[in-house]
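Hi W., the copper (II) ion complex you wanted:
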Amino acid sequence: MRALIVTGGLTALLSLAAASTPALAGSEDVVVEGAWSRASIGTTRPGAAYMTIRNTGDAPVALTGIATPLAMMSEIHETSTNAVGVTAMTPAGEIIIAPGGSVALEPGGLHVMLMQLQTPMMEGQAFPLTLLFDDGGEMTVEVPILSIAARGPGD
Ligand SMILES: [Cu+2]
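Structure:
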């Protein structure tokens, strides 16, 4: 139930932002390109989403979190492989995007992990994903769900 409460909180924050001048510095210059995800088999295993996040402004931007009604819990993970070839995923924490820079979320690297899926991810559908930034800004993108074998946004 926690994700549902968080979603309610976001709505309240949006209302507040509309009522007063939001103190944004940076995240309004963020552009998201090539978002995609793969179809899932049911809801028992987590899903993942990928995209490139570009900072077109002249101040650094910090991505602090992710929210979507599709998953009870969503986090940005980093995939790493140790010296003996064992692959592990760890929460990436805050991601700083330099002015004019971009960060790629792609298979084998940084990715959005979608845990406790609320519905199966069906090929041909899409879901909203909200990026949260440390300046209070947020951006919601529609993530298309590609085939279970997709390897990139063009598949
Ligand atoms: Cu992960």
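The beta strands are 30-38, 47-55, 61-67, 71-81, 87-91, 95-97, 102-105, 110-117, 126-133, 138-146.

W.
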